[in-house]
Amino acid sequence: MARSFALAKPHACFLLVMIGIGLLAGCAKNGDDKYYLVSAQIQLPYWRTAGSGFLDAAKRMKLQAEFVGPETYDPKAQQLDFERIVKSKPSGILISVANPQLMKADIDAAVAAGIPVITMDADSPDSERLSFIGTDNYLAGVMGAKVAAKELHGKGNVAVFTIPAMANLNDRLRGYREIFAAHPGIRITNIVDIGGGPRIAFSAAERIIGKQKEKVDAFVCLEAAGGKEVAEALDQHHVQGKTIVAMDTDDETLEWVKKGLIVATIAQKPYTMSYVGLAMLNNLHQHPPEPLEQNWKSSSFAPVPAFVDTGATLVDRSNVDAFMGAQGSTGGRRM
Questions:
Q1: pTM for this prediction
Q2: What is the pLDDT of residues 149-170, one digit of tens each?
Q3: Best exposed site among 53, 98, 152, 276 by fewest CB in 10 Å?
């Protein structure tokens, strides 16, 4: 079921985009213009933060905007939302792609119809989308892997919790694999597909720790929901001495970092991704390149960057209090 809500170091191109936001404010063509953010899982705190960024940008720029998507991980439901939105002929669409192969044809058709489409957080790299805004996911994987390798002292078995259909999570896993390759004593022994269901992560962690013959020393969670569920499972079963590396910064994950059960988590910037995304969409709508469906990703004269890196930050016990304080001072910027 879908619901809607109406209303590290960045690359140089990102800085230029941020400078341009002020210039783009108040540029709507007419009152009928409307922009959409399509999430992969609308109820996650991560996505509610992204929704806030999108709607805050719309308010500042005096634009109509709506935040939509399935409540739980459901690539087909996301595709149906996207198809419905395209039929309404919106001014632009920002989407986090749950399944790149499933969405490619729909994204290509939207762009061919003159609707600017930008991906954020999770890309569809083979589609005709005009730009991708988000974390450099490979480097996020490298960041987490270095922490895990240090905690394991170069030796141990690792369970990875992921959603294999999502390109951004596969990029993170690639980063982990490349760092672990320099440590022959570290082996990935389990790949758990949680399918967007947090309790799947909890149950899988219980099964893993219950297997006496298959010792797992570290748990790597490549998406937002897994880390806190693994931490809860280990805590309930009084399992100590394990390493958990998580992603993202919802309140529960940060509390487990404070308690020391999650050794570190990687903070992304979903608010920034969606805020910048709306500014870029509005600019493309006001000043559309000709033709819109050209392969701008490889063009030296592209009107938008192929990739905007919004950066990532490692949060551990040394800085979690400061991070939570800073996040609390802005109200978390959640809807």
A1: 0.87
A2: 999 999 999 999 999 999 999 9
A3: 152
